[in-house]
Design brief:
The protein has 77 residues and is mainly α. The protein contains two helices and no strands.
Length: 77
Amino acid sequence: MMMKAVRKITGMIYGWGIMLALFVGGLSFLGYLWAIFAGGETAAAICAFIYKTLYPELVYWTSIVVLVGVIRTYIKE
């Protein structure tokens, strides 16, 4: 009974986490697209922000979400 609840909770965390990661990835694509149209120093600043600020956080949080997914996989029903 307890494992079923843990499996359900980890499944929910994994599902929402992956959805959020895909959403942030899409936003980063839109940011790069915006930078292409902005050009010049503005484009460099946008790309530097995405690469130096957004991507490290995205990698950190998605790693945690994938770990939750792996834990969910190995919990028996």
